[in-house]
Amino acid sequence: MYQLLLCWRYLRTRYIALASIISVTLGVATMIVVNSVMSGFTTEMQNRIHGILSDVVVSGPGLNGFPDPEAHMAKIREVAGDQIEAMTPTVAVPAMLSLNVGGEHRHFPVQLIGVDPATQSQVSDFAKYLQHPENRTGRMSFDLRDEGYDVRDHQAGADGLERPGMAVAGWEWRRRLAEFRAMPPRQEPSETGPFGRSAAALDSEPDPSATVDPFAAAPDRAEPEFDMATRQHTGVVLGIALASHRRSLGDGRYEDQFLVLPGDDVALTFPTSGTPPKMTNDKFTIVDFYESKMSEYDSSFVFVPIDKLQELRGMYDSVTGAAMVSSIQIKLKPGADGDVVRDRLRAVFPPHYYSVSTWRDQQGPLLAAVHMESAILNVLLFLIIAVAGFGILAIFLMIVVEKTRDIGILKSLGASGWGIQRIFLGYGLSLGAVGSGVGMILGLLFVRYINQIADVLGWLTGQPVFDPEIYYFYKIPTIVEFWTVAWIVFGALAIAVLASILPAIRASRLHPVEALRYV
Amino acid sequence: MCDYSRRDAFDSPVPLPIDGAAGPSEARGPTAVACGGPAEAAPRRPVRHPAANQLAAVHLSKTYRKGQATVPVLKGLSLSVRRGEFLAIVGQSGSGKSTLLHLLGTLDAPDGGAVHLDGERIDNLPGWKRDALRNKQFGMIFQMYHLLPELTALENVMAPLMIRQSVWQFLRHRRDHRAAATELLETVGLGHRLKHKPRELSGGEMQRAAIARALVAGPQILLADEPTGNLDRSSGEGILEILGSLNRKRNLTIVMVTHDQAIAERADRVVRLVDGRIEDE
Asked: What's the number of CA atoms in the CB half-sphere (13 Å) around residue A156?
């Protein structure tokens, strides 16, 4: 009992000891902030990657993959059907995207992915990242919408970036383009003009100019029966970073400038499935943008309907005529273990022909690097608290000397050595509790208001702390994990108690008579 | 320097020719020489049977050692205190009065000899038993008052009860304890200063609070080390009156050491401590 009373009195009267735990406070606060931001970034990144990739992928060799995805899916279901929620076949090939920006042609290397619009969204967050609300509801289609594309970044909430350019996207934009092109004096190469198509294209449209050099500018002659204002080519979804770039407007505001909009036509050039592969190309109409906020993917992914891509590439089995796919994307049921499914599938699909991997396998090095980074930061920050422990040790030794006579008094009143030890251990614990408690509150407040703090810091220094030009997030993502905070606070408490053990033992070993004589 | 913590090493099985009927009287001679002063070969005069007295010191010796110099303080001192007696021990500064009191109160261990309480040897008990003895059987007051500066007068008085009991026990009985401590403080005339910290009290008041603290655990024996040494005449007189009345009304055994013959005269019996021994009774 006297331990509690004395701890409480010491805590309230010894301000120098409180000074010694400021470093504990700062260490705890810093660790909480760093861990929250790191885990916010990591989780956000993992969610994005996981949203883009499916849980498990069975992929075939090379660009042509394997035939008869239905049979493969039946096999997969037979092996691990209890764990599987949905599957979809995909085709992925490298391709070249050609945009026409104000009469100037720009070409970008891209990853062309053929997806099944009906099932693709069941295995990944594909639809969630699209810009038309109708496409996000699960009725994704590669048909151009009339209007109603988002004019604001829907993933960033109410204060998301505004994209006024998207207001005209859709058929409205396409009609304007057609009108513009139809103007007689301005028959220069326009939105769709310069692009031709190969003779091999299995397009249903009549195409008299197919054999003409695709880059011969002859807009009036190309596709005379194709009325741009009312018809579209096959739909394509572009990664948003391919179609836009972010620009600072100064004073902390940003704008996405679009080079092309839904309604524009683009051309894609990609290899056929023959041997050797030959280049083929076709025109597509942009129907939506894909924004995963992972710039790596947003600047390289281009999605088209899988059947169209198979047709254009001639991906059919030479014997059976079955369509071929590059891979089958598998979505697992909640709680299912991807590694288990992967291992089961590996046992069935021979490794020299198929590769089976989870999304973590595919992004392993990146995730491992992030974990490493976070672990090292934690070690370094924890050392700060450990240094604080030595401060507590020094101050406690001084307090024991100062309190020598009181220790003698307590012993003369019958206090045991262990009882005296507990005073100082309890004092260390309560100092640690105050230090880490205040640190925890500071850290949590900092995390709570981190974006406001970043704004103020940016305003003070004139340099934005968190530049949306660099990061695709508009806000600093933070996640406060209960157990992380608990471990940090527990660690700080443990260090404070450990630092008080030596002084406590010294106090308990004091001889009562000498302690009483101490002046 | 003498290592007090090595007490257990001195438990030698060799018996000494001391008539200690109750309790084992073991020799500390051979090893005591290594640490303390030379053990006396035999008591100077017959010791009364320890069981007949409440508190008895049998042939105590104690030597302080500082570097090469050894200072023998007690040289085979024997003393017995009867129940309800008010005994004063008079001696000059440095004569070993305080050391004797510390040995009697088990705050320190003798190099040779034994201390008996109610016929039981107490100087060689394990630490936790001696802690309990100090807490329950002995009340101690000191020249320097020795109040805890962080606690109020009331809390200082309750400190022995806090030490004795666990948090829950204490909290369960805190009303009784508070009442008992308040009553004691009123007895010593400090009823109006319960909430004052020691630094807000005068010397006499501090010593009265210390007496209340020594009494709160209901001890059998009060050990007083120069209780009036730091006080002016009138304050000292007040303290002595309190001690005297405690002795008369509560039949409390009091052992007081002082260098002042006049103060010693207030006791029932006065002994002189000269050259590490009791001179006369």
From this structure: 19
